[in-house]
Structure formats: C-alpha cells, structure tokens
Amino acid sequence: MTEIAVTGAAGRMGREVLAAAANREEIEVAFAVNRTSVDELISGVVVESSDNFAELLAEYEPNVVVDFTGPESARTYADACADVGVALVTGTTGFDDDGLDALETASESTAVLKASNFSRGVAALRLAVREATAALPDADIELTETHHNAKRDAPSGTAKTLLDDIEGVRDDLSDRVHGREGEAPRDDDEIGVHARRAGDIAGEHEVLLGGSNETLSLAHRAGDRSIFAEGALDAAEWLAGQEPGWYDFFEVIDDA
Ligand code: NAD
C-alpha cells in the first residue's frame, strides 16, 4: 500500500489525482490540501487548508506527496517534504531557475520526481522526436502546443522539455523564437515556438520538421487529464521507498 498526500486537491489535476486514487486498491490518500478551503468532499476525501501542510505531513507521514499546483507552492511543499523525508512527485510546471534549484536541494534529503508530463504517449513522443531530429539534421523545426484557456505558463512545460530534447540532439539550434510578427524571416538556428490557448483542451503538442520537398509531423493529443493522473500515481508507487535523489518519469516507465 502506498499512502499519498495530494496538494492542489481542488484544482483540475488535483481532482483527477483523487479520482484516480479512489480507483486504485494499492493507493490510499492520507490527506489532501488546497490553498482555498473546499466545502465539498472530492472523490470522498476531505480537503484541508494548505496552511497546515507541514503539520499534516508530520502527523500522517504519507509515503509520497503528489503535487500539481503552482511553482511557488510546489517549492514550499518540496521544502516541507525534505524536512521530514517524505518523497515528492510533482507535475507542476513553470519553475524558474531558483525554483528548480530549490527542488534539487530538496532531492538531497528526499526522493523527488519531477515531470512536465506524466503521459506515456508524450514519453513516446519525446523518444520519437529525438530520433527524428537526429535523422533529419537539416530540417527546420517548429513546435506548437495548445492548452485550455486558464493555463498560466507559456510555452507549456512539456513544450520546454521537447525543446530541450531537440537542442540536445541539434546543437546548431539555439534560438527559441516565440511567435513571429512583421518582418520576421527565419534564421537557420531558430526553433519556432507557438502557444495556443482555447476552451478546455487538455494538451496538444506537435513537432514539425520541414525539409526540402518533405515534412514530418509528430503530434500527441491528450484526450483528458486522467492520463496525467494515472501516470503521476504510477510514479508515486514507484518512488515510495526510493533513496533521496532526483528521479525521472522514464525510470518509472522502464521499470513497468
Ligand atoms: P489549476 O489552476 O486547476 O489547479 C491548481 C491548484 O493548485 C488549485 O487548487 C490552486 O488553489 C492550487 N494552488 C495554486 N497556487 C497555489 C499556491 N501558491 N499555494 C497553494 N495552492 C496553490 O491547475 P491545473 O490545471 O490543475 O495544473 C496545475 C499544475 O500542473 C500546472 O503547473 C500545470 O501546468 C501542471 N500540469 C502538469 C501535468 C503533467 O502531466 N505534469 C498535466 C497537467 C497539468
């Protein structure tokens, strides 16, 4: 049995995590918190104020905290997890360098697994993009992501991960150009990045590789958010009991 605590429990992803956990016999929710108070039960779970997070963590001692919130709060939760040695799975995106440093510092005291995307399809997309980028070394590359109209950070964390993957293969591409307007001819070292926001779209990513007389398009579309929640719970089960350190979602997939 893996005992988890859920942060941002009333958010889009927090609700998905609680719903997915309710359907898993091997996962138990020790407690759930949200920044603002919640009057309803969510998937049968009482959601408490995140003001008491450190006290709840010490009282319930869950194996893993599953966090989908915002970069500032995730950082606070990581510090609290590090203080008591509780593992952290975070899917939160939009960290700046200080935030990432804070997570890495926490990983010196506890197991931390951060992933910008917990979909197995996106993990497969990443592998395919690396292969295609290597196979088409002269291609122009453009990345487009599309998300719901309430998403805060742009481009998406997944888009940034894909850009890191591409640049890891193509060291001649160093200039991320976010949209174009007016006189804007393309330079050879550019990767074009386009972020669309509309409706309730759970997440779409497309990498376009354009050459002479041929184009290759690699794309992933999330049907709904449950895939991210299921992946995060897989990660939580895998991370429980791991030594302090920094872990990757590919390690979870490779062990499955
Ligand atoms: P949301 O706005 O619906 O929910 C966020 C929740 O976190 C809310 O309940 C909010 O009250 C809480 N929160 C925000 N800031 C807080 C703070 N400072 N202190 C305490 N609580 C705070 O957002 P969402 O769609 O659920 O997404 C949450 C995060 O997860 C975003 O960063 C998003 O990009 C990311 N995300 C990651 C994946 C993935 O697979 N890794 C998938 C979807 C979303």
Question: Any overview of this molecule?
Answer:
The chain has 256 residues and is of the alpha/beta class. It is 36% helix and 26% strand. The protein has eight helices and twelve strands. The chain has helices at 12-22, 53-60, 71-84, 97-106, 120-135, 157-169, 226-239, 249-255, and strands at residues 2-7, 27-34, 47-49, 64-67, 87-90, 111-114, 140-147, 175-178, 190-197, 204-210, 215-221, 245-247. The strands form two sheets. Strands 3-2-1-4-5-6-12 form a seven-stranded parallel sheet, with helices on both faces. It has a five-stranded mixed sheet with strand order 8-9-7-10-11, covered by helices on one side. It is elongated. It starts with a strand and ends with a helix. The model has no long low-confidence stretch (mean pLDDT 97). Bound molecules: nicotinamide-adenine-dinucleotide. Residues 8, 10-14, 34-36, 50, 68-70, 72-73, 91-94, 115-118, 157, 228 line the site of nicotinamide-adenine-dinucleotide.
Question: How would you describe the shape?
Answer: elongated
Number of helices, counting only DSSP H or I runs of 4 residues or more = 8
- Rg result: 19 Å
Largest sheet: 7 strands, parallel
Identify the strand order in the major beta sheet: 3-2-1-4-5-6-12
End-to-end Cα distance, whole Å, is: 17 Å
Low-confidence stretches: none
Tell me which ligands are bound.
nicotinamide-adenine-dinucleotide
Q: How much helical structure, as a percent, in the residues?
A: 25-40%
What percentage of amino acids are in beta strands? Answer: 25-35%
Class of secondary structure makeup? alpha/beta
How many strands in all?
A: 12
Averaging pLDDT over every residue, what do you get?
A: 97
The ordered string of helix (H) and strand (E) elements is EHEEHEHEHEHEHEEEEHEH
